[in-house]
Specification:
- The chain is α+β, with helices and mostly antiparallel strands.
- About 35% of the residues lie in helices and about 30% in strands.
- The strands form 3 sheets. Strands 3-4-5-6-15-7-14-13-12-11-8 form an 11-stranded mixed β-sheet, with helices on both faces. A two-stranded antiparallel ribbon has the order 1-2.
- A hairpin with a 5-residue loop joins β4 and β5.
- It is globular, with a radius of gyration of 22 Å.
Amino acid sequence: MIEISVKGNWVKVPAFQCGDSTIVITGSRIKTARVHDEAWMETELRDPNQCLRKLREPGHRADVFTFTQMPPGTAPEYEYHCEPDSIAVIRLSSFKDWWEGLPQETRKNVRRAEKRGVRVEAAEFDDKLVKNLVELNNSSPMRQGRRYPYYGRSFDQTKRDFCSFADRSDFVCAYFEDEIIGFLKMVYRGQVASVLNLLTKDSHQDKRPANALIKVAVERCAAKGISCLTYGLFNYGNKRDTPITQFKVRNGFEEVLIPRYFVPLTIRGKLYMKLGLHRGILGIFPNRVILTGLAVRAKSYQVLSRCSSMLERPNSNRQMGRSNPPAGSNS
């Protein structure tokens, strides 16, 4: 058993070693075996057949085994069933080529950050950085229309959440005067670098710290001769044309389809794949349904957040809040 982070929570799951990779088994009704921290590993899975042999041994029960190839390789190398993973990638030849290929709006945003006093610097992973990350995490309970799982974490919890791969990562911070307003963590994986964290303070969005951080990340990759910079998924299943996708496009990321393999190991696993359930909710429902659901979720979180704020305020303040509508209100 090892501990892994699932949506910001640390949980114990069964695991075993297969060459240089750790295979973890997650899920309750359907057990899925996958490479632990696959998106941040320096090499892809070397011997899938060895893993399959181990998964068929007693004590390693799983219904489906999944693994992927490492970008920028796009041609399938194995004969197992595969489906494309949509990865956001900047193909780097030089910093100049990347910069000149950006939309004019993005270049203006980078310059705006500089003119408004944003300072971007590399940092060491030490107690000072962790204190800054606690402040950054606690700047907003909501991010991208949903609850932020790292909001309210203690110093020790934050240190644990952000310490992974510290020996082959760059930690880049954006400051306004002496206040941290943005943070980017980038993990090096041979000729590939991957953005693991990108956080900014909503109160300083007018200074465009995210654009400034991406620019510095590309500069550092170009200086190291990195050929690809990745930033998570480009499309999340059928969830498309979202604000985060638009941000990636404006900053020079493009979609690269990488083969992801799925191998059913049990009758239940075969049925699971036949029904398309291995794709998850975002891979089953159409885009319009997903976007409607996301809008409803964001609205409900906003209502809950306002209710929580009202409950935490003194009675006199709550009464004033009800009787005095905000400026510009039609109430």
